[in-house]
Design a protein that fits this description.
By secondary structure, this protein is mostly helical. It has two domains: 269 residues, no CATH class; 92 residues, Phage tail protein beta-alpha-beta fold. The protein has 17 helices and five strands. The longest helix is centred in the middle third of the chain and has 91 residues.
Length: 446
């Protein structure tokens, strides 16, 4: 639920002064700080702009109450009002300029570089991006609150704020202000919103409400005339004139003197509080950046760990699939061999010795064939030159309770090879092949 919209609706429908005063208190720092930057640091003119903005808000309360984010409306209204006020002030070349008590916004070089072009860059953002930056860094809202205000989840708000901050950084880079995203976020959090004078919120609330009441009663004073008379020194006087239109002049002068004295005291206190508040804002900004940095580091570390785990699982899956395919081929060949019709032996031979385990792991096909041939029948092997390229491939099998001769036939059949008696004279024995007793058998393609 949007609390700002509820308060504005209460003022628009029931004329609740307390609701409007609460809205002014909530947003006066944002409006005043934006106005102060855009009028070149003239504190009195910035207060006039702030009063104009809230007067417009009171006048347009019914239409603005349906606005998605009141902060965005106030920020844009401040830009327009400040631009108009600057143009008006320039035309008053002959008018005496009042003293300006300028608060030093920040001694940080990045803020000094950012300050002159910040509001122009903010104006180039889209409404949703601008609202996200205002809520997160100007008003220092938590991401959960930003998401609730924008009508999204906390994670969606985090992404929206990150994208908006990056777009703002690119706009600033185009104006010659090069800052990292972290530095920009710190500068906005610590220095974008400064404390308005302590009495300004009360002055504006009283002036706007009194102006609305006077307009409704047909008073000769209207709100625009009231604001055109107002500077910092005359703000309280204008409110007093409208509220007490029927009060004798002497009483008004006494009240004015008292209010001026109170105004001076409050201004001195506000300057002291402003310095303390600025320090707290900078510390809060640093704390937010540190927490964000730690969270990002943890996410990056977790991402690297998950990527390594995925790569390991992929390798294991590929190895398992390869081994399963080889075992399937060997089992099929063994089944075909077992189902073949038996031939009567020409000469009775002793039963071949059954090997409890025949295992080759990533072994050369040549070595596997030679080893099984020696164990099966002490065969003297000669390889067909055409099958030489096949002998470089590797073999991984695991067979149990199988004779060496059967295992040899399975391996030969799987690799499309066969045994031939007395190979042709064109076959050549390799020089490094040893000679042993036994039948000479050749191995060639099927």
């Amino acid at each position: 639920m949007n609390d700002d919209a509820q308060l504005l609706r209460r003022y628009a429908e029931a004329g609740s002064e307390s609701a409007f005063s609460e809205l002014v208190s909530r947003h006066i720092d944002l409006v005043y700080s934006a106005a102060l930057r855009q009028v070149g640091g003239d504190a009195h003119l910035a207060q006039d702009v702030a009063q104009t903005v809230f007067a417009d808000l009171a006048r347009k309360a019914r239409t603005v109450s349906g606005h998605e984010v009141l902060t965005g409306w106030l920020y844009q209204a401040t830009r327009y009002a400040a631009s108009k006020a600057v143009r008006t002030e320039r035309r008053r070349a002959t008018r005496e300029k009042e003293a300006v008590a300028m608060q030093e916004l920040s001694s940080d070089a990045s803020w000094e570089q950012l300050q002159p072009v910040l509001d122009e860059a903010m104006g180039r953002l889209g409404a949703k991006d601008r609202n996200a930056v205002l809520l997160r860094y100007f008003e220092r809202k938590e991401l959960r609150v930003v998401g609730d205000t924008l009508g999204t989840s906390e994670e969606a708000a985090r992404k929206r704020v990150s994208r908006a901050l990056e777009r703002l950084r690119r706009h600033l880079t185009g104006r010659g202000v090069t800052l990292s995203a972290t530095t920009l976020a710190t500068a906005l959090t610590g220095s974008a919103v400064q404390a308005a004078p302590a009495a300004l919120a009360g002055t504006i609330s009283a002036a706007v409400v009194a102006g609305a009441a006077a307009a409704a009663a047909g008073s000769s004073f209207n709100l625009l005339n009231l604001m055109s008379m107002t500077k910092l020194k005359t703000g309280l006087l204008s409110a007093a004139v409208v509220v007490g239109a029927g009060t004798p002049v002497v009483v008004q002068q006494q009240s004015l003197s008292r209010l001026r004295a109170e105004n001076r005291d409050l201004r001195e206190q506000s300057y002291q509080l402003g310095s303390l508040r600025e320090g707290r804002q900078q510390i809060a900004g640093l704390r937010v950046d540190a927490e964000e940095l730690n969270r990002l580091r943890e996410e990056v570390a977790e991402l690297h760990r998950l990527r390594a785990e995925v790569a390991r699982l992929r390798r294991e899956k590929e190895d398992a699939a390869k081994l399963a395919a080889q075992n399937t081929q060997l089992k099929e060949a063994l089944a075909r061999f077992a189902s073949a019709p038996e031939r009567k032996p020409e000469v009775q031979k002793p039963e071949p010795e059954v090997l409890p385990l025949v295992q080759f792991e990533d072994a050369s096909l040549h070595d596997a064939i030679v080893t099984l041939a020696r164990q099966a029948a002490n065969l003297n092997l000669v390889f067909d030159p055409e099958v030489e390229p096949l002998l470089d491939s590797s073999l991984t099998i695991l067979l149990e309770n199988l004779a060496a001769e059967a295992a040899l036939k399975v391996i030969l059949s799987t690799n499309n090879l066969r045994l031939v008696k007395m190979p042709g004279p064109t076959w050549k024995r390799r020089d490094n092949t040893g000679i042993w007793h036994g039948d000479v058998v050749g191995i060639t393609k099927k």
